[in-house]
Amino acid sequence: MAGLGWRPLKSYAPEILGKCGAGGVTTRFVALWSLTAVLEPDQSEQRVSTGIDALDAVLGGLYWGDNVVWQLDAAPVEPFYGAIAALGETFDTRAFISLGSDADTFEAYGLAVINAGPDSPLASPADLLREIHRLCHPPGRRLLLFDSLDSMVAAWGASSTRAFFARCCPLLLEVGAIAYWSMSARETPATVRDTVETVTQCVLRVDERSVRVAKAEGRDEGVRGSVLHWHQEEGVPVLAPAELVGRVAASLREVRRSRELSQQDLAGLAGVTASAISQAERAERGLSLATLVRLSSALGVTIDDLLHGEDPDLYRIGRRTEDPQRGLERTITLLGGSDSDLRVDLVHLGVREAATLADRKKGTGIIAVASGLVQVQVAGQTPAVRYGEVLVADSQRIEGWRNLGQTEAVLFWIVIPAGHATRPRRLA
C-alpha cells in the first residue's frame, strides 16, 4: 500500500502497469491469488497548483479541501485569483461567487458567476450555503472563488458573515473543494477576522511588496512565516523568495500591523530613528543584530518569533491527499518524512485483506483501529483489535495485519521514533 513499503502475504501474480490520477501518476498494481493486495505508487502526492510556481514551492501546492484566505493590506487580490482561475483543465467546475463585484474578469476565464446578496435569488447566507452544498455534490474537482468577506459584511453584517464562513469553510474541506477568500487586514471586523483565521486552513498576508504565510495547515514545519517578494507583470503575479533584508522588512510591517504601532513607536522600542524603520520596512536597508535583539526584547519575543511570526506552532495536521476524482486512497501517509519526528498513516483494508510491513523503523508502534476487526501480527502472536481500541508495541516487532471482518476496516499506523518528542518544532 502507498507509502508504507507493503509486501503481500502470499505469492505475486504477474504485475499490471497502468496510469491513473492527475498528471498520469504511474502506479503498479500487483494482483495476488489470495485476498491480499498491494498498491505501490510513486511518492508524488496529489495536490493542486496555485498557478504560481514560487508559492507552490513554499506550500507544496494545495490540498483538495484547502480554504485559502488572502488578507490584503493595500494589495489587490485579482492577480492571485486569476492565477488559479486560469488552470481550467485542473477542475471539473469553477465558479466565482459575487456579492456585487464586477465579475467580467472571471467570466473571461470561463468561470460560472453566482450572484448572491440582497436583490438576488441567493439573498441570505443560508440561501448561498444551500447553493454551495448543491454545487459541491457529488464531490469532484471544484474551484470556488469568493467575493471579499468585506462585501459580505456590507451585505449581511459581521455576525452573519462570521457564521456563514464558520459553516461554509468546513463544508468545502469535507467535500474536497478548493476555495479562495479575501479580506482586508485593516477594515474587516475583528470578530470576522478572528473566526476566519481560526477556521480556515491557509492564511496568506499580502501587502504591496510581500506575501507572508501566516497559516498553512498540513505543511512541513517551517512553512509558516515564509516570506516571498511579489510584483505584477502585465497583471500576472511574479513571486520570489525574500532575502533576509526582505524578510525583516515584511516582519516589521506585520509586527506594526498586529500590535497597532506607528513607525515612531517601533523606532523607540528598537532605539533607532523612525526613518531607519521606514527604510527597513521598504527593504532599502537592514537592521543590525543588536537592534533586532533590542527590539525583540522590548516586544517580549525571540528573534525567531520576530522573523517567523509570534504565534507558536501549537499543532500539526496530517491532511489526506486523495484526488476527489480518483476517490479513496487505500493508504495515505498523513505525517512523516525523512526528517520527521512522527509517522502517521491512514490504512483502509478490504474484507479479509492483509498486508505485511517491509520497512519497519525503530520506535514505538501504535495501531489504532477506527472501524472493523483487525488481527495484528506481533512477534509471532496474533492479537485481535476491535474498533475504538489500540495496540502498542515495539514497531520493529509488528509484522503486519489482517482484516478479520466482513466489512472494510480502517486503522491508523503510528510510529514514534525512539528518543523523539512529538510536539511541534520550529526549524531555524
The overall pLDDT, averaged over residues, is 82
pLDDT < 50 stretches = 1-44, 421-428
Q: Which topology of the largest domain does CATH recognise?
A: Rossmann fold
End-to-end Cα distance: 34 Å
**What would you call the quaternary organization?**
single chain
Class from secondary-structure proportions = alpha+beta
Main sheet: which strands, in order across? 7-6-8-9-5-10-11-12-13
Put simply, the count of helices is: 12
- Principal-axis shape equals globular
Largest sheet: 9 strands, mixed
Name the helicity range: 25-40%
Rg, Cα atoms, Å: 25 Å
- How many separate structural domains? 3
CATH architectural category of the largest domain: 3-Layer(aba) Sandwich
Number of β-strand runs: 22
Return the CATH class of the largest domain. Alpha Beta
Beta content comes to: 25-35%
Identify the CATH homologous superfamily of the largest domain: P-loop containing nucleotide triphosphate hydrolases
Describe the protein's architecture and organization:
This protein is α+β, with helices and mostly antiparallel strands and 428 residues long. The chain folds into 3 domains: 6-45 and 326-417, Jelly Rolls, CATH 2.60.120.10; 53-242, P-loop containing nucleotide triphosphate hydrolases (Rossmann fold, 3-Layer(aba) Sandwich); 245-308, 434 Repressor (Amino-terminal Domain). The protein has 12 helices and 22 strands. It has helices at 53-59, 78-85, 104-108, 125-135, 149-156, 158-175, 190-199, 244-259, 263-270, 274-281, 289-299, 303-308; strands spanning 6-7, 12-20, 25-32, 38-41, 67-72, 93-98, 112-115, 142-146, 178-184, 202-206, 210-216, 227-233, 236-241, 331-335, 343-349, 354-357, 363-371, 373-378, 384-386, 390-394, 398-403, 409-417. It has a 9-stranded mixed β-sheet, sandwiched between helices. Strand 2 and strand 3 (25-32) form a beta hairpin. Helix 4 runs parallel beside helix 6, helix 5 (149-156) packs across helix 6 and helix 9 packs across helix 10. The longest helix is centred in the middle third of the chain and has 18 residues, at 158-175. The two termini are 34 Å apart.
